[in-house]
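Quality-control log, excerpt.
Job 1 of 2 completed; input and output follow.
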Amino acid sequence: MSANNIALSFNTAEYYSLQEASEYLNTKYNSDNVTPKKILKHMVSHDTPAYIHVSFKNESFKIIGDFETTITTDPEFKNFFKKPYESKNEDESKYWLNKFKEIEEKANNDLYSNFYLGLLLLKVSELTLFNLSFKNEAANVDSLGFDGILIRNDLEADPSKLSFLKREQDSFYVRGIGHFEIGIEDIQNVDLEDIRKYISLEFDSIFETSGGLAYPYFKLSIRDLVILHKDLLTLEEQIIENVAVSKKQNISINLQNLPKRKGVSPKKVLAQSLARHIADDEWKKDKNKNIKMLEMSNIVWSKLWELGFADTLPEQQRIREWIKGNAPDYASEGGRPRQK
């Protein structure tokens, strides 16, 4: 066996940093032209997934995002949404909200064990990769979230399915995940300087939301990225065969400079349905026809907060988009809302 073949065999692994990936390709093709940044640019062009290794050892950190649960396929849940404005719906909404919370908490507990042991790779959002492709290896950018999770002993899995989580028979469970962030719960009672040392990601500031939830602005660099061997082989083949680059879809950005979630989470669907129910009920009781749209938006926002939807709510003025389909004509007429 030639020295070149020995070196290539030695370089082959299940996954690589981009520096290791460039060394692998340079050895394979007897080249010195492949660099981590060039690999990254091709990854961005060909939608090749990149991952980072993340571990944390503090339960203040939670996965906040679009968990896909089996609740949405449950016949009782589907029946619940067939008649969203019945008076009994408020109690049912609380029931289903609690179910969502229980399932997400259980999933987070299972994930925490794996984060603690350092067994997980997180799929980096494509917008983060695009921003990194303009930086040198040492420079960093704010992470714009993640799109899946792989566990160490099953790197061939679909990162959106979370198939490694514990799943009990005949019960509700998390079966997948969309876009997500790593958040900090109960931020008022957390010492940021203290918990920085308990997570492998670096951050220098946070975005604090209402309800005690905060999102660190995690810093990522090209040096943090990992590419799987199977994905590198696919990318290599696409480059060699000069495969046409697919046209990119526009990526929308929200007020926190984070990608909007892909689709609407079941919890948000539940909040929107309950918002319409609350508004409809309040307007039915408004015999004097005094409650305008702005005031109703405030009423609905406050009640949803009390019911535990704080982490799902938009700004108060945007609640009107949720409830305007139920508004009576007089609610849209001019005039100031009543003074409380």
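Job 2 of 2 completed; input and output follow.
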Amino acid sequence: MRINSLNAFTTNHLNFNGENNKRNGMKNAAKAAMVATALSALAPMHQSCEKENYVHNHYFEIPTDTFTQKELVPTPVPPQIIFIETQLPGDTVTLRDTIQIPGDTVFIKDDWKSDVPPKEEEILDNLGIKTTGNGKFILSTSFYDRKNNELVQRHLNGKSSSRDGSILVYNVIKTRWDDESEGVVLGKNEKFEKHLVYLSEDKRELGMKILQPKVDIKPAGTEGKSSWGAFTKGTLSTPGNWEDANAFFMSAENGIVNLSNGFSLKSAMVDQAVTVTNPHNSEWDLREWNVIKGDPD
């Protein structure tokens, strides 16, 4: 059986191989259109891996600024505390770091509806990840990737998500461990992504498209605070400055999350943690998950 991790949730870039898996970039930036090409098994994901795989092409427009600011209602995301234990290569000492993630504000429309969040929660439930807060949208997700020594944060971008709720857009900041500080320093060593999350045509699987900046971005961030403002002004605020990096579908069954690119996720041995297995059977953990749900106030 082939299984994969959420790159919406993992920090490894999962690359497609072969002639049938060529990635398509953005087309016609003025219309903000793109091709989301993802591998998906024609047979159900729980069947044998010997079943032949087919390529399914899904075409949709990048939802960008579909809501005006007047239509959106601010929803506060509460501050979080995350505890990180890491061991640097060649080191025998395990370092423990405490990160205080300041609260932020997510803007969404008060009567906005989407079929995507229930499928997101189904994935999390299969992994044993508990959520906090009430509401139908997953506003914020954070965890620590022990393989890449990165703190991963995702915030729902209501303004850029589609009006009909068919595609949700998340802004993503990955903050690498800083050797000099012996810890994760918010606003330092950052890289940026966008995650487009949607359902398969039969609504049985959760799809994800990963976008990365076409150029390296080094915003003049404030130490101790993540650089979310980079998404709203400057290079990253323009759809044409993003390119597709990866795409896949996810399905959940019996505590396992199956992806169409050969990775798998399962609940780890500790609370609020997930074990990732790659196609070569290497494993690592994503720890200290914080998932916040909410609706407009």
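Post-run check on job 2. The helical segments are 116-126.
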